[in-house]
Amino acid sequence: MSVAEIRCWAPDGVPEIHAGDDLAAILVTATGRLEAGDVVVVSSKVVSKAEGRQVVADDREQAITDETVRVVAVREQPGGGVTRIVENRLGIVGAAAGVDSSNVEPGTVLLLPVDPDESAARLRTALIAVTGAPVGVVVSDTLGRPWRRGQTDVAIGAAGIRVVDDLRGLPDANGRTMGVTVVAVADEIAALADLVKGKAENRPVAVVRGLGEHVLDVDGPGARSIVRLGNEDMFRQGSAEAYAEGYRNGYAEGSQETSGSSDDEVDGGAW
Amino acid sequence: MSVAEIRCWAPDGVPEIHAGDDLAAILVTATGRLEAGDVVVVSSKVVSKAEGRQVVADDREQAITDETVRVVAVREQPGGGVTRIVENRLGIVGAAAGVDSSNVEPGTVLLLPVDPDESAARLRTALIAVTGAPVGVVVSDTLGRPWRRGQTDVAIGAAGIRVVDDLRGLPDANGRTMGVTVVAVADEIAALADLVKGKAENRPVAVVRGLGEHVLDVDGPGARSIVRLGNEDMFRQGSAEAYAEGYRNGYAEGSQETSGSSDDEVDGGAW
């Protein structure tokens, strides 16, 4: 009976990372001997720290605003404070634009890496140079979901890995073609790694062994290719925001007594 | 150097499941000796088959309509066909309401289990009775995400497992309290299991070892508790749908020349 198996472990002993540290060298020491087909998952937090993305910011809210390219939805919370769902520079939609104020020095915040795919590619090159093994690299971050409680880790950077596995058109076990299945491999790897890395401990890196079928000989498309925006995005605005925009436009049209005929696109929203 | 480690494997040799099969007995045979703290992840597909949820349906679209309690967003696809994002009976928001037409007999579709938390609880009880080990059970299904390409597996049923790990208020490694982190443990476990189970092969079950800290002595809250709906849901309607509703209401108000004063809630949408 053959068995598909994955192992994932997160070594202790990764030191506190500072700006300018050689993260690849630190990862090589922490992870030990890597094998061909291993995937190394690194929390974006330590990538950002190594890249000097810790910045002075008395006001976390202003830092979030600075990292935001588009506001998707805003909601005042019952207990005070405001939740802002925004698109950040990387096209990622989530709360707080990736601005991180936990596990950083007081009076500072940590921004996401400038280009996490590029960070992953640099780490991949450095790891391969040391270990001689073709490995994949995922840079992970923590993201909420609109209709489900809690957050999961996702891939915001990737190199040497098939980020999605497109099974559309392949036969299923009964020989019928499968529906719309596109497996979000890199995000599932990030989620797996989160389970072993944890949040509170100093275990920002994990190694996943057993997914060599998804490891590539090249950097590949990267995690940027996972982002679904623009015309594909059915949730470009929060419901309240889209309703309010529609109401304003509808009210303006109705006030002009154009008797129901309008050149405006009624159901297009911001798309 | 201590190491946190997870192993996950998906045994081959699980037979085709039919209505009325004793799924727990089949799982015991397939998974071999379970240990205390193991989590068994089962694809909802085989749970549904064992529970006789395969129904004759010439029209898959009608079956989706029957399983839908609320339409969130509808979009015609460029290549033809329609994507419907809906809330199903279980409160889960996704495409196709969980109606599955792959890996089933022609002319039929497979509906989700009636109560996947209850299915998970029954399996947990039966597994514990056979193995004597406290184990957790997750019933998984495949779900898309609004802003990211590809699908991940999530937990639609759970028993004996901490479905979310609420770290709010706990100290981080620097002794500062962590922000809003609530780890979606059950969903991350489902994602992990998807990586080993695969989609095309007959490997509908996986065992996860190493997460005993999240395994409970009781059935626990179940996956239903992960659902975020109602007032917490900022994306209760697709942007186009919310815009159109706002436009209609705004236009009606404007046409009455009420000069901008209205008793209607302008920014409330459907909430």
From TrEMBL, chains A, B:
Domain Coenzyme F420:L-glutamate ligase-like intervals: 14-210
Keyword rRNA-binding: no
Gene3D superfamilies linked: CofE-like (3.30.1330.100)
Pfam families (UniProt xref): F420_ligase (PF01996)
Superkingdom as given in the UniProt entry: Bacteria
InterPro entries noted in UniProt: F420-0_g-glutamyl_ligase, F420-0_gamma-glut_ligase-dom
Sequence segments annotated as region (Disordered): 247-271
Keywords: GTP-binding, Ligase, Magnesium, Manganese, Metal-binding, Nucleotide-binding, Potassium
Amino acid composition bias (Acidic residues), ranges on this chain: 262-271
PANTHER family hit by this protein: COENZYME F420:L-GLUTAMATE LIGASE (PTHR47917:SF1), PTHR47917
Record-given protein name: Coenzyme F420:L-glutamate ligase-like domain-containing protein
Lineage, top ranks: Bacteria, Bacillati, Actinomycetota, Actinomycetes, Micrococcales
